[in-house]
Amino acid sequence: MNFAEVSTKVQGIVARPDKVTEIEMAINTAISYCTLKGSFRNDLVEASISIDATLYGDTISLASLTRFRRFTYVKPTAVRYYMQPIGEDKIFTPKNQMQPNVYYIAGTSLTYTLSALATALEVGYLTYPAVLSGTNTHWMLDIMPYAIIDLAAAYIFSSIGDDASARTHEGRGMEFFTTVRKDLSLGE
Q1: What DSSP character marks residue 91?
Q2: How far is CA 135 from CA 22, 40, 141, in A?
Q3: What are the two backbone dihedrals, phi and then psi, of residue 160, each rounded to the nearest 5 degrees?
Q4: Of the candidates 74, 41, 82, which has an alpha carbon nearest to the alpha carbon of residue 186?
């Protein structure tokens, strides 16, 4: 299904033609909610980030990563190990030595340290969903459209004060989402 088809289904459920804008917002909210509740392969983007080949550590911008949410892995090219994420306060050991093969994120920057020189970092990261409209598609609308439809309907029913219908549709939507999430989640 595309966004317009899902919007029509939700409009049919809530029977409120005056809520078209709210329905569109509710569909995008439901997709965002479901995206954040799981780590799905369909949201995974793999990329290579060029780094200075003469440095063992640096801070680089993540601005080139589209709708970046969080990393699933970071590794230097041509090695068999993954770098470990740490807090920015853990970059130095208690003996004041810099830890190798670690990284942390601060704002829109990635700071890393390496034990060997490399030309790039291979990364896998999860993305936030784009805001949909018109005939846009999203993989969730193909695989679990009725979870999104029920969750969007629940948001609308809740906003108009129909709590019983909101609970019914939220329960159905979450049950379907939970089932699909178990099948599709990365490492969960």
Answers
A1: S
A2: 17, 23, 11
A3: -100, 5
A4: 41
Q: What is the 3-state secondary structure (H, E, C) of 125-148?
A: EEECCCCCCCCCCCHHHHHCHHHH
From the list 41, 44, 25, 45, the residue with the least C-alpha distance to 33 is 25
Q: At what angle do helices 20-36 and 3-14 cross, to 10 degrees?
A: 110
Q: DSSP letter string over 35-81?
A: HHT--BGGGEEEEEEE--TT-SEEEEE-TTSTTEEEEEEEEETT-S-
Paired with 59 in beta bridges are 111
- Between CA 88 and CA 105 the distance in angstroms is 8
Model confidence over 83-133: pLDDT tens digits? Answer: 999 988 888 877 888 889 999 999 999 999 999 999 999 999 999 999 999
Residue 86, by phi and psi: left (phi above 0), alpha (psi -120 to 50) or beta? beta
CA distance 42 to 58: 30
CB-CB contact of 83 with 75 (8 Å) = yes
Per the structure block, which two tokens stand in for 141? 């609308």
The pTM assigned to this predicted structure is 0.87
